[in-house]
Specification:
The complex is a heterodimer.
Chain A (H helix, E strand, L loop, with lengths): L1 H31 L6 H17 L4 H24 L7 H22 L16 E3 L2 E3 L1 H23 L1 H11 L1 H6 L4 H27 L6 H15 L4 H21 L5 H15 L14
Antiparallel strand pairs in A: 1-2
Helix pairs in contact in A: 1-5, 1-6, 1-8, 1-9, 1-10, 2-3, 2-4, 2-8, 2-9, 3-8, 5-6, 5-8, 6-8, 9-10, 9-11, 10-11
Chain B lengths: L2 H6 L3 H12 L7 H26 L8 H18 L3 H24 L3 H21 L1 H4 L5 E2 L3 E3 L2 E3 L2 H23 L2 H11 L1 H6 L4 H27 L1 E2 L6 H14 L4 H18 L6 H15 L4 H13 L1
Antiparallel strand pairs in B: 1-4, 2-3
Classes of the chains: A mainly alpha, B mainly alpha.
Chain lengths: 290, 316
């Protein structure tokens, strides 16, 4: 039982990060149909900026705040200078643009920062506490809490504010949204900013546990994309569930089967799910019009 | 045959490529240029295979480097452990890739759009993981040596020999591809590209055609993988990695989807560019990312179709 709980908590921690990355994918996809492979780079930028600002003597909370703002600005720039000029390009071309952006951001990061691994001091101390026989890092709780707050805030924002409703409208039908006077271009830009900020927060929260370096983004983007697909692309709830499921699969297969093949199990599960449910767990079926 | 008919013949472009291939080497200052040229043709072969799937049948694959790995590791493992001659292993690898594509193709190709993308991505990553972890056979993450290709007592290892072999194979593959495009199968694929529902209404067996082209594209990529391994004399699991798959897709999209010449141009750009950019040291990745974005934003149809459109526009 202790073993089970141990794997459960580690899966939940990683899964939370995947969920946040998948949420970022979903936000941008809903607003613009773009699959943003630079999403992992937002996570990297959040973590790395905080680390280097802290090294420069900025208190960690301020460093984190600045890092989120910087990453959000990068998200806005990505939309303004790479996605917006390519309006009307094919989905594959847009994917290649975001991959180009991720290579570019990684290239910039290795110059501005460095190529080493870095960590941040955990918020609540580094001493693990016992829970039903499992050792849990206090930072894991910070990750859960942070992710919970983000999801709640996002939900409130989308549900309660006019701007949030405009995002929903744009996701539902871009043409209709424009017809009722929504500036969909601004909404897409906004979704890039929010996605980048969410990614940055995820990067900052998880850095004390998993460390960060200039190249952590690629694998995170892959896993986040897979998680979003697992849940059914376009569904925010699906993204969160997909992320948590993926984290669990990984942790349990690493624990009970083979740690070398944990990534393999994750992708096998995704293939199996897609074969059984071609639209993802929570996705809606689409009918092609001829 | 009039000059006009000759110029517009569907193999005219290929004849031009062949002419350039033959005329270029006298200007190569060193063997290094043969090496880069060989790499261009090897990757062009792989890109052309993927282009058949993406450009003609309209199916995205983010995992085709998996077949690069199957082809590459077949020529690495089979000669060492089973004493098979390397040239036979190229064919064996192609057959194995075709078989794997046949088995995974049917369920994978039922998926559409981004779901197809993530499923193929998963396939490629799985191949890379297996190659990394089965260290007894593959040497693990460090990879393994690949015995050189021997043809009639001749150990093929010089770059110029590989330049000619790769170029000849590319041209052969291109003739095959162009003939296929002009066949009923090719027209069925184009119909599938435009609308799967509509083409199935017209009697096209969509699942079968997609599977056939998936298998064929896997074979192209597998042969390229075998060549790459034999040419380098060394192979690592990175050959199947996500980055390699993306590179292949980038070659196809950059050169132009559905354009055979585009596959060559795309491969040339993405093979030559990193060689040039190494002088930039730390700035290499930054510039590569910028160039990739720039190409996709300003030449979104791909280099060859965009150029063709410009030329056609000038003529009228």
């Amino acid at each position: 039982m202790a073993e089970f709980l141990q794997f459960f908590f580690s899966g939940l921690t990683v899964g939370t990060v995947y969920a946040l990355v998948a949420l970022g994918f979903t936000l941008i996809y809903n607003a613009s149909d773009v699959i943003n492979f630079a999403q992992g780079e937002f996570v990297m930028l959040g973590g790395m900026s905080t680390v280097f600002l802290a090294l420069a003597g900025v208190p960690v909370p301020f460093a984190a705040l600045i890092a989120v703002i910087v990453t959000a600005a990068v998200g806005l720039a990505l939309h303004r200078f790479a996605i917006e000029p390519a309006r009307g390009a094919s989905p594959v071309a847009l994917i290649m643009i975001t991959i180009g952006a991720s290579i570019f951001l990684r290239g910039v990061a290795q110059i501005v920062f460095d190529k080493r691994f870095h960590s941040l001091p955990p918020v609540l101390g580094a001493e693990p506490f016992r829970f039903g026989g499992a050792a849990v890092l206090p930072q894991s709780l910070v990750v859960f809490a942070g992710a919970g707050i983000i999801v709640m805030l996002l939900w409130q924002f989308v549900d309660r504010t006019m701007l949030g409703k405009a995002i929903i409208a744009t996701a539902a039908n871009r043409l209709a949204a424009r017809l009722v006077g929504i500036d969909t271009r601004r909404i897409v830009g906004l979704s890039f900013v929010i996605s980048a900020a969410i990614g940055a927060v995820a990067g900052i929260l998880v850095t004390p546990i998993t460390l960060t370096s200039y190249d952590v983004g690629t694998l995170l983007a892959l896993k986040g994309f897979a998680a979003a697909m697992l849940g059914g692309i376009g569904s925010a709830l699906g993204a969160v569930i997909g992320g948590l499921l993926l984290g669990m699969f990984e942790a349990f297969s690493a624990g009970y089967i083979s740690s070398q093949y944990k990534d393999a199990v994750a992708f096998l599960v995704i293939l199996a799910v897609l074969f059984a449910m071609p639209q993802g767990v929570l996705g809606r079926g689409k009918v092609e019009r001829v | 045959m009039s000059v006009r008919a000759l110029v517009s013949h569907r193999l005219a472009g290929l004849a031009m490529i062949a002419a350039i291939t033959i005329l270029l080497p006298p200007f190569f200052p060193s063997a290094y240029y043969y090496r880069v040229g060989a790499l261009v043709f090897i990757f062009a072969l792989a890109a052309m295979g993927l282009n058949l799937l993406m450009g003609f049948a309209g199916q995205v694959s983010l995992g085709h480097a998996g077949f690069l790995g199957i082809g590459g590791y077949t020529v690495a493992i089979a000669p060492i452990y089973f004493g098979m001659p390397s040239w036979l292993c190229i064919l064996g690898g192609a057959a194995l890739s075709g078989l794997v594509a046949f088995l995974v193709g049917r369920p994978i190709l039922r998926l559409k759009g981004h779901y197809l993308a993530v499923a193929t991505l998963g396939f490629g990553v799985l191949v890379a993981i297996v190659l990394t972890n089965e260290a007894v056979w593959t040497g693990g993450p460090d990879g393994m040596m690949v015995p050189r290709l021997t043809l009639f007592e001749w150990r093929v290892r010089e770059s110029d020999a590989w330049y000619w072999i790769a170029a000849a194979t590319f041209l052969f593959g291109a003739v095959l591809a162009l003939n296929l495009i002009d066949s009923p199968t090719g027209r069925a694929l184009k119909a599938i590209h435009d609308s799967e529902v509509a083409s199935s209404m017209l009697g096209v067996d969509v699942a079968r055609q997609k599977l056939a082209i998936f298998v064929l594209s896997a074979i192209y990529v597998s042969v390229a993988g075998s060549y790459l391994a034999l040419f380098n004399g060394h192979i690592t699991p990175d050959v199947s990695g996500f980055v390699r798959s993306i590179e292949l897709v980038a070659m196809v999209v950059l050169g132009g989807m559905g354009s055979v010449a585009g596959s060559l141009v795309g491969a040339a750009v993405l093979v030559v560019l990193p060689q040039i950019l190494t002088v930039l040291h730390d700035y290499e990745h930054m510039v590569l990312g910028l160039i990739l974005m720039g190409f996709m934003i300003f030449l979104r149809q791909g280099i060859v179709p965009s150029l063709a459109a410009v030329l056609a526009g000038r003529r009228t």
